[in-house]
Design brief:
Length: about 40
């Protein structure tokens, strides 16, 4: 997972938060601007 290296703190977040943020972190879609986390 590329998120583990870029955002190690994301792993500590609850599963609900992870799943909610997952669509925004989809590398397949062009969501570079949405890369910033709300936390």
């Amino acid at each position: 997972m590329f998120t583990n290296k870029t955002m190690p703190k994301r792993i500590q977040l609850p599963d609900d938060f992870y799943k909610h943020e997952r669509p925004l972190y989809n590398p397949t879609k062009k969501t570079q601007s949405a890369k910033i986390t709300p936390i």
